[in-house]
TrEMBL record:
<comment type="function">
    <text>Dual-specificity methyltransferase that catalyzes the formation of 5-methyluridine at position 54 (m5U54) in all tRNAs, and that of position 341 (m5U341) in tmRNA (transfer-mRNA).</text>
</comment>
<feature type="active site" description="Proton acceptor">
    <location>
        <position position="352"/>
    </location>
</feature>
<dbReference type="GO" id="GO:0030697">
    <property type="term" value="F:tRNA (uracil(54)-C5)-methyltransferase activity, S-adenosyl methionine-dependent"/>
</dbReference>
<keyword id="KW-0949">S-adenosyl-L-methionine</keyword>
<dbReference type="InterPro" id="IPR011869">
    <property type="entry name" value="TrmA_MeTrfase"/>
</dbReference>
<dbReference type="GO" id="GO:0030488">
    <property type="term" value="P:tRNA methylation"/>
</dbReference>
<dbReference type="Pfam" id="PF05958">
    <property type="entry name" value="tRNA_U5-meth_tr"/>
</dbReference>
<feature type="active site">
    <location>
        <position position="318"/>
    </location>
</feature>
<dbReference type="InterPro" id="IPR030391">
    <property type="entry name" value="MeTrfase_TrmA_CS"/>
</dbReference>
<feature type="binding site">
    <location>
        <position position="210"/>
    </location>
    <ligand>
        <name>S-adenosyl-L-methionine</name>
    </ligand>
</feature>
<dbReference type="GO" id="GO:0000049">
    <property type="term" value="F:tRNA binding"/>
</dbReference>
<dbReference type="GO" id="GO:0019843">
    <property type="term" value="F:rRNA binding"/>
</dbReference>
<feature type="binding site">
    <location>
        <position position="215"/>
    </location>
    <ligand>
        <name>S-adenosyl-L-methionine</name>
    </ligand>
</feature>
<keyword id="KW-0489">Methyltransferase</keyword>
<dbReference type="InterPro" id="IPR010280">
    <property type="entry name" value="U5_MeTrfase_fam"/>
</dbReference>
<dbReference type="InterPro" id="IPR029063">
    <property type="entry name" value="SAM-dependent_MTases_sf"/>
</dbReference>
<keyword id="KW-0808">Transferase</keyword>
Amino acid sequence: MTSSYQQQLDAKIERIQTQFAEFNPPSLEVFASPEQHFRMRAEFRIWHTDDDMFYAMFERNTDQQKTVVRIDDFPIADQSINTLMPILLAELKTNEILSKRLFEIHFLATLKGEMLVSLIYRAPLTKEWEGLAQQLAEKLNIKLIGRSRGQKVILSDEFVVEELQVFDRKFQYKQIESSFTQPNAQVCQKMLEWACNSVEKTDQDLLELYCGNGNFTLPLSFKFNRVLATELAKSSVYAAQWNIEKNNIDNIQIARLSAEEFTLAYNGEREFRRLQEAEIDIQSYNFDSVFVDPPRAGIDDDTLKLLQGFNRILYISCNPDTLHDNLKTLLETHKIVKFAMFDQFPYTHHVESGVLLEKI
């Protein structure tokens, strides 16, 4: 590792160890990132001058003024994105229809080599634009989407299929444009393996809250008899169901509920037609463990109370502050038996962490 990457990683380790020291956790397991080419997504503004256009980002000065920063390459992005960036830009520059009023370009790449590019405009997209964009997509062998206000033109697909390896298994995941996916695929694989290593194979069932597109659901399903996973966003539920079928897994059900709604249903306080339509009988499950990967805001109080009833809680967090706060409640009934940090976002203050809790 270079000294600059190691220094920022060491600073994160010290921060996490200091923040959680009051809970007396076990030794922190640290999972580093590649130093370069680790982001599978990148988004750029397109800056136009009288005789040129280029990729740009903005940097805030001390007086909060924005400065335009020209981007000719982007070392933290996957190599495929860096390779495509100048080629795509050169093609766009040669065509006035494709370049006029172009506002942003978004890249979504996969480890297996697929690429989805979204071109975002400040002007309506015409049939002529569509024809030229189709030619460009075929020439560069990419998937292409055009967007403008109230308009979305999908030329082939609005998704890529990622392939992640977890030990000796490969899992395929549909990743839809503009939907959340883990940006650092190589660290994501380490997170999946850590989660699977944290639980013993059992004939009991797993509850998962906030399952997204089934990122953790798929590999964890091999450790349990059945899995009931919840997710509210329709696009994520659709992707999760596609991923379950694509990977030939038959012991997972997806309930389109928020964590708060599931708590109400599980406690018998409210019935949901969505459960009946999906033929999901919550009471038929023999839950022993629960897996949660909540949003940055953490877990609400009622759901925390629900979690306290499980023997094991596996908690992945993208926000150490809310994890720390949630642990104040969860450690009333549980203890930390595994503690990990994943450097999902190098060179930023963001850090992903994980804990395995067992009932006292």
